[in-house]
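note to self: dont lose this again. the chain is below, predicted strucutre after it. 381 aa total, dont forget to put it in the shared folder this time
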Amino acid sequence: MKMLFVAGPTPSNAFALAPLATAARDEGHQVFMSTLKERTSVVAGLGLPAIAATTTPIADIKATRRSGEREIVPDDVDHPEFIQYTGRWFGRVAAESLVQLREVAAGWRPDVVIGGPHAYAAALLAHELSVPWVRHTWAALDTVGIHVGSEGELEPELRQLGLDGVPQPDLLIDNCPPGVRWAGAAPAQQLRWVPINSQNPVEPWMYTRGERRRVCVTGGSMAARDNNFELIRSMVDSLAVLDAEIVIPAPEEVAAELRNQCDGIRAGWIPLDVLMPTCDLIVHHAGGLTGQTAMISGVPQLLLPQEKKVRRAAQLVADYGAAINLLPDEVTPDSVAKALQTLIEDSAYKDRSQALGREIAAMPSPSEVVGVLEDLATRTR
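---
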């Protein structure tokens, strides 16, 4: 059977789809994963055949409407227009990807198409080929505005296919553990999260505990924005008082600046799945996969969600008792220091984090869900 996985524009999209894609290959199926040209090395690094679905640089896709107009990007991530803008450029990714994926399907026709939450090309290609479309999610994202923005940008493709909007999937797969899944979420096939990410050579300190508590601080945009270095420095000071070791997984260009500005830290591209079992606490931007990797290891979390679309998921983990969630207007050096101390000293957070880890362990494995995909494709032939 041929299975086409369509990843979204970030590396985390490839990481999220990789466990199921890898399991499908292990079961003997032919698997391709498409992504933006700049992300093909990420997919190939995971050991999967990578299709470059775009030729336009990501920066240009983000900056220019299909009409040729320049995008005006709101500075405020809470502004309603920001999530619409996000949807528009996701729509442009889908429109360009669809052209390339049609060419791929002409010579390699998939039996089922599996796409990330905003990989809209997956839905349109599957509709055109009359094969099942599977939507694969991994966090309780606020997607309403994104969908609207994407459909507006995809209006020519939708009209050509006789559609009023992006069609509903034939199957929804979700790896969010039940205890922190949004009560209003659509019914879904559960999938156990298995951490897969880009690797570096493993060093002994990464997988062994030292004498001090270890705290991981990570988060993509949080680490990359200059105005957040002061926040990271305040964390370093707070954790020094608590006699904690600080490890910051980050791209090397960011890590180098962090090492220059913060004494006594470890920073670099550190495989999170290797590091996490040695940690006592993680501070991050409420990324769904980062959070689930912490849950598997029973590690409490300090969540600092910046984007509005992830805040519901962050609050659900906090309500469960496995995290403290601070919104942008609540983040101060004092509030962060208090939260860090509470999470380290109150064992209830550790207990609830371990409970989430047990929930994940009980969810269906990727190989089991491959069987569900096989049945779906067989029924619809």
